[in-house]
Amino acid sequence: MEHLKRVHNLEHIKILSDGRRLSILRMLIAAPATLTQLGEALGEHPARVRHHLKLLESAGLVEMVDQRVVRGFTEKYYRARARAYLLQEIILPDQKNEESITFLGSHDLALEAMANQLHQLKLHPFGLYVLPVGSLDGLIALRQGIAQIAGCHLLDAETGEYNLPFIRHLFPDRAMRMITLAHREQGLMVAPGNPLAIHSLDDLTREGVQMVNRNQGSGTRLWLDCQLQLHSLPVQALHGYDVEVRTHTAVAEAIQSGKAHSGLGLLAAAQKYQLDFVPLFHERFDLVFPEEQMDNPLFTVMLDYLNSVRFRRIIRQLGGYESDHTGDELHL
Q1: pTM for the full model?
Q2: Which site in 35, 86, 96, 118 is 20 to 30 Å from 5, CA atoms measured?
Q3: For the stretch 312-328, what's the b/e string if a residue is b when 16 or more beta carbons lie within 10 angstroms of its beta carbon?
Q4: SS3 for 151?
Q5: Considering the domain 10-85, what is its CATH architecture?
Q6: Which of the 8 DSSP states describes residue 229?
Q7: Cα angle value 2/246/291 (rounded, 5°)
Q8: What is the share, in percent, of the chain residues with pLDDT greater than 90?
């Protein structure tokens, strides 16, 4: 089972908590490397590096891409595989003339609205650049220093808690802050009038029902995979399970255009595209960032706006959002 495809518990994410494995991944981002080369760079015996490399390979984070015979020995070349580590997929804007905060994480319509509003502020002009890569990939990017803030809604199936268990395991050595953006409603988006009478996940297994899925590592995909396992629904029975998009709006667009009949996503996205909606669950969406960012004046502006009456009004207008706990800090 590949990592980021069916994440059911914290054992998967513990692999990413070790600093040596993160160092190996950073090197494999830059270029393929052999066990010997990694050992030399880390100052470790290749046998020790092999242990970490095999864990990363079994988790689907790295892969062997080539073999070469050098002085009679076969050298295997490895490279990073997980989307979170392929930096060429992330094109950051030119920030030379503008102060900015880079956000990587789960897609959220309220966050997009915040980014637009902050960009328009006249007294404190700066950019909040939102790059939707999924909840888990956002936390990994934050761990690696690629982003300054991440957004997530990862449900731990064992405890029923959102986000906290994952952050504790990914950042055991760093002081972190976690602040609630909002609570959101998710469910199945369907065409107006729900012509195929889709009312549950079981209905996605019916012949002739085509779904569209969220990307691996997203909180929505994690929830779906947990539910499929809980109800013993095989992914092979869901037509379109392997068809992935990165945002809730992309799911809505696929249904509106007739490319799919249903997909899991936000009520706000369904309303935006005038689709019908089958509610399934409520969740908490949190913003996560290192403690030291509290000294960043740009974060002060962002958090002040987060707690403003104006932003709460925008949240409520989106549909399916609750702002009662917006701005609440959760202790790690």
Answers
A1: 0.74
A2: 35
A3: bebbeebbbbebeebbe
A4: strand
A5: Orthogonal Bundle (1.10)
A6: H
A7: 85
A8: 52
